[in-house]
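Entry 14. Structure prediction run on the chain below.
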Amino acid sequence: MIYLNAFLFCGFVCLIGQIILDNTKLTPGHITSLFTVIGAFLAFFGVYEHLVDWAGAGATLPITNFGRLLYDSAIIGYQEQGVIGLLSGLLVNGSAGISAAVIFAFLLTMICKPKD
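Output returned:
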């Protein structure tokens, strides 16, 4: 059942993104930022943890989870180090994912050729 829930949640996030993309003048960058902020708000209100319990990895893969990661990192950093921890928590916990994305994007550009 967890696989079905994961599929449904990820599919729902993709469906909402596609509907927004098709029916508004928002660019994919705007939609990505919107989903990140929505994920942070859901984490703030405690809803995202319930989604992770329900959908498992399906809730930890979409861009909404990046917003949750930023929010949780800032809160943990603040609790451990005060105001300075707000930024340092963001950098420490988010850096692995961001670095991996940059490295893999670079490697794929070395392998794949763009079409003319």
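The mean pLDDT is 89.
Filed with the rest of this week's runs.
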